[in-house]
């Protein structure tokens, strides 16, 4: 617990000036708080027994008021500064966490769920903030008031101090016991909160699928189940916390009773003034306030500990794909991509790519073909280092891609992936995503080349049209063309295209095909192709089967040889030849549609 709290406190201790001021305010509030029972003692002992000064009670009243005002000001300063420090801490922690999550690799994200990470950046950071905002200042206040009380009571009578000192281990024992009971329960609360976050995130992100399959009742029942688990976890915490207050009150009452017993005897014997006894009970009552909060404090501390552990679990996860310390920048490239004996597995013992070697010369088109699950997307993802090869190596212009900085490598590579993901912003911002200072002309030129300009202009807001979350307000074909425009604007030397023309109608496919042909011109292109037209364009086709290259050559060469390519051609590609003839002529939508129907039914 101490290790995690001290690691967390490194986010809190800055700036030291604010921290010092906050501590000074806390100290002032504690000292002035201790002055109040002392003033009462003086009033009782001096004012009632002796002949008081004419203005004695006015002076005492004025002093009490001044002390209360001073204490109020100190509490204000302390609360303001404690809030500022805690919010700054949460801000830093959240930024650091998000920054780290952004730098994790695909492999790390494969193992964590989005909702879980969301819960860590929100609920867990919040639990830490609450402890440092309210819990830690209360502990400091408790320590200062406790030490001050013991000193003041010793000043009044050593026996009082002995009573106070004897009760300290009991209070601490209770606090530690409750904290020990609470810790696993709080961890469970945090885990259930994350589980709820995952359930909500997945069902909301997938709401279209939920509705399409009419699974709303099951989804509601699932979230209900997870929420009920969280509710039960909270109840268990509440049970333990509820035990704390009666036990504390009992201990406190015992301490007051003992003080009254010891002090009462001394007052009766005339060895102690009455004011001292009243002041001693006043000190104990004053100490009761922060002590009563011990249950709340232990709960907060164990929640902070559980959350801190979860935060450091993420922060301590090194990205699986890491940059070398002296990684150099990849500036100009020609675009020669070379894979040398590359093997890869996601999970140990389950190879996905086996001994893949090929060289794509600058400006050439290399197409990958293979059945589903044969490793095409995996292969494409190794080139921008989304994953690192398990063995072998990949070079770009004969430089191992592990030698260069990730940002500069990825800047040289344009990607249009299987599922073109857009952000909920304008079409313009989606096209220029991540690039500053792109002129309007360059954006329009990219959109025209991507055959997206015409449909963009049909929207009332043109390039400033807001696309919904993940681009849902656009059709699949429109999304793909925006993604192609995005690649155009970057003007990369190496292009990776994954199945870019699936799931669209034939006319859109034709437009996308034209856009891609334009985009590919003069660049090294690696394309995962299901379309005959793309395969015919390719300088080399690599046929993959279970992660191995089983055939390579041009379309002409491969179609004449018996083998997997020929089989795929006969089964899936041959009828595209007929559609091709149609589409190379000015498009006749009816004929195209009837060809599309034939394809679907076959
Ligand atoms: N993130 C991942 N973690 C673990 N295994 C994965 C992951 N992604 C893919 N795989 C597995 O790796 C194999 C190759 O998948 P890959 O996506 O590369 O196939 P593909 O050839 O692109 O298929 P498709 O034509 O359907 O897109 C599959 O068996 C798949 O289950
Ligand atoms: Mg794929």
Automatic annotation (TrEMBL):
Transmembrane stretches in the record are 21-44, 56-76, 130-155, 161-182, 245-264
The entry lists its GO molecular-function terms as: ABC-type oligopeptide transporter activity; ATP binding; ATP hydrolysis activity
Which N-terminal residues, if any, form the signal peptide? none
Instruction: Describe the location of the ABC transmembrane type-1 domain by residue ranges.
Output: 21-303
Its GO CC terms are: plasma membrane
SMART domains, sorted? AAA
Location in the cell: Cell membrane
Q: Domain ABC transporter spans what residues?
A: 337-571
Q: Which UniProt keywords apply?
A: ATP-binding, Cell membrane, Membrane, Nucleotide-binding, Transmembrane, Transmembrane helix, Transport
For membrane topology, the record states:
Multi-pass membrane protein
Main localization of the protein described in the UniProt heading: membrane
PANTHER family under this entry?
ATP-BINDING CASSETTE SUB-FAMILY B MEMBER 10, MITOCHONDRIAL, ATP-DEPENDENT PERMEASE MDL1, MITOCHONDRIAL
Protein name from the UniProt record: ABC transporter ATP-binding protein
The taxonomic lineage of its organism, from the top, reads: Bacteria, Pseudomonadati, Nitrospinota/Tectimicrobiota group, Candidatus Tectimicrobiota, Candidatus Entotheonellia
């Amino acid at each position: 617990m101490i290790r995690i709290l001290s690691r967390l406190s490194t986010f809190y201790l800055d700036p030291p000036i604010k921290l010092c001021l906050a501590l000074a305010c806390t100290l002032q509030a504690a000292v002035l708080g201790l002055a109040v029972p002392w003033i009462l003692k003086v009033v009782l002992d001096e004012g009632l027994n002796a002949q008081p000064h004419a203005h004695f009670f006015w002076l005492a009243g004025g002093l009490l008021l001044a002390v209360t005002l001073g204490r109020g000001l100190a509490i204000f300063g302390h609360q303001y500064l404690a809030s500022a420090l805690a919010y700054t801490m949460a801000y830093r922690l959240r930024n650091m966490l998000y920054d780290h999550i952004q730098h994790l690799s695909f492999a790390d994200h494969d193992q964590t769920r989005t909702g879980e990470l969301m819960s860590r950046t929100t609920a867990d950071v919040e639990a830490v903030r609450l402890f440092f905002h309210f819990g830690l200042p209360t502990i400091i206040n408790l320590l200062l008031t406790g030490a001050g009380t013991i000193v003041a009571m010793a000043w009044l009578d050593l026996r009082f101090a002995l009573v106070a000192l004897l009760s300290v281990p009991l209070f601490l024992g209770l606090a530690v016991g409750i904290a020990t009971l609470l810790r696993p329960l709080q961890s469970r609360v945090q885990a259930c909160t994350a589980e709820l976050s995952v359930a909500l995130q997945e069902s909301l992100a997938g709401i279209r699928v939920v509705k399409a399959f009419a699974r709303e009742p099951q989804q509601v029942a699932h979230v209900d189940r997870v929420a009920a688990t969280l509710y039960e976890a909270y109840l268990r915490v509440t049970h333990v916390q509820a035990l704390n207050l009666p036990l504390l009150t009992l201990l406190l009452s015992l301490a007051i009773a003992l003080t009254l017993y010891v002090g009462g005897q001394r007052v009766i014997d005339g060895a102690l003034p009455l004011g001292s006894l009243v002041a001693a009970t006043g000190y104990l009552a004053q100490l009761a306030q922060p002590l009563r909060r011990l249950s709340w404090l232990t709960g907060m501390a164990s929640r902070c500990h559980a959350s801190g552990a979860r935060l450091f679990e993420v922060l301590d996860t090194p990205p699986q794909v890491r940059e070398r310390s002296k990684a150099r920048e990849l500036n100009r490239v020609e675009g020669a991509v070379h894979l040398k004996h590359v093997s890869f597995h996601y999970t140990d013992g389950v190879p996905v790519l086996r001994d893949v070697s090929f060289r794509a010369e600058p400006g050439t088109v290399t197409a990958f073909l293979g059945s589903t699950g044969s490793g095409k997307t995996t292969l494409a993802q190794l080139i921008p280092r989304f994953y690192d090869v398990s063995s072998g190596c990949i070079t770009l212009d004969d430089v191992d891609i592990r030698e260069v900085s990730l940002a500069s490598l990825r800047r040289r590579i344009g990607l249009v992936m299987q599922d073109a993901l857009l952000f909920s912003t304008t079409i313009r911002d989606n096209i220029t995503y991540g690039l500053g200072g792109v002129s309007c002309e360059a954006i329009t030129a990219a959109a025209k080349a991507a055959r997206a300009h015409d449909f963009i202009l049909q929207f009332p807001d043109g390039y400033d049209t807001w696309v919904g979350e993940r681009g849902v307000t656009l059709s699949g074909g429109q999304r793909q063309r925006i993604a192609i425009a995005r690649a155009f604007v970057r003007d990369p030397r190496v292009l990776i295209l994954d199945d870019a023309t699936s799931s669209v109608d034939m006319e859109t496919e034709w437009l996308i095909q034209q856009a891609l042909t334009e985009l590919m011109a003069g660049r090294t292109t690696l394309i995962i192709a299901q379309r005959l037209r793309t395969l015919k364009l390719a300088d080399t086709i690599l046929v993959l089967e279970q992660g191995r290259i089983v055939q390579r050559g041009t379309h002409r060469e491969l179609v004449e040889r018996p083998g997997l390519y020929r089989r795929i051609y006969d089964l899936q590609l041959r009828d595209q030849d007929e559609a091709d003839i149609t589409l190379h002529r000015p498009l006749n939508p009816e004929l195209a549609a009837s060809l599309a129907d034939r394809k679907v039914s076959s």
